[in-house]
């Protein structure tokens, strides 16, 4: 397995595995998103991004959600507890766009 270091933003370095498979997931954290002034859309503090040919998957605990190009995630709807409520707009969820963009970046898209 190859491991590369990728600098993301100012002074943050992430170890990214360059092999395929679910075991080679990139850690995404609320702290990293906060430091980069990105919206963290989840209620958990960290999740793994799994790069797959058919699309990116986020894994939090034992749950997996396929990120879609439309800014959503298969298996994640308004009733899914892991998807954070938008603190500024009652009844809406935090946009998944920053997480999708980050997944595209770490997956080399």
Distance between the termini: 20 Å
Provide the number of structural domains.
Answer: 1
Number of H- or I-type helical stretches: 2
Side-by-side strand order of the widest sheet: 3-4-5-6-7
List keywords for this structure.
alpha+beta; disordered N terminus
3D structure, described in words:
This protein has one domain (20-106). The two termini are 20 Å apart. The chain has a five-stranded antiparallel β-sheet with strand order 3-4-5-6-7. It is of the alpha+beta class and 109 residues long. Mean pLDDT is 75; it is low at 1-21. Strand 1 (3-8) and strand 2 (12-17) form a beta hairpin. The chain is built from two helices and seven strands. The longest helix has 10 residues, at 97-106.
Task: Give me a quick take on this structure.
With 109 residues, the protein is an alpha+beta fold. The chain is built from two helices and seven strands; from the N terminus they run E-E-E-H-E-E-E-E-H.
In terms of topology, how is this protein built?
Layout: E1 3-8, E2 12-17, E3 26-29, H1 30-35, E4 46-50, E5 57-60, E6 63-67, E7 73-74, H2 97-106
Antiparallel strand pairs: 1-2, 3-4, 4-5, 5-6, 6-7
